[in-house]
Amino acid sequence: MLDRLQAYDTLLxxxxxxxxxxxxxxxxxxxxxxxxxxxxxxxxxxxxxRKYALKGTLWVLLCxxxxxxxxxxxxxxxxxxxxxxxxxxxVDTLKEQMRLVAQVCGRFGYYSAHASGSMAIAVFxxxxxxxxxxxxxxxxxxxxVLIGYSRIYxxxxxxxxxxxxxAFGGFLGWLAYQLQQWGQRRLAxx
Length: 190
Fold this sequence. Notes:
This protein is mostly helical.
């Protein structure tokens, strides 16, 4: 059963990866770069500050830092210790059938830390602002999905790597939101 799932995952990877074309490669390379999201993070930080003032913002930042670290380290645990599934760009039989756009191709890929981290932040911040900014959660989820797809487009992750990363990230984002809400209630009582 696992072999069949991986075969379907490979077929879907090849289909999605080969949808790309050279004129769009630069866009996806920029989108997947962690520094490209800094303007978004600055805007979100400003919105958090407007909602919670300094003390509440510091708590949100602490929760976000724990969230990002947990997301990244959990992905590394799965990649390098538990699963050790080679990335598609490391599989010799796929190299001639795929487009490798990324300049760097790591060793193992299950599951995508990019997909996990971006979905974790999208869910965490989206939940914080869901009542204040109606469309912001959907914009953040779209941003996270695009980052996830960029990993397939660039040739460094299978679709299952991305979907799993998004699922783990979404759950971690929800947990971080619960922690943040608990802390905001404690700050309000202090």
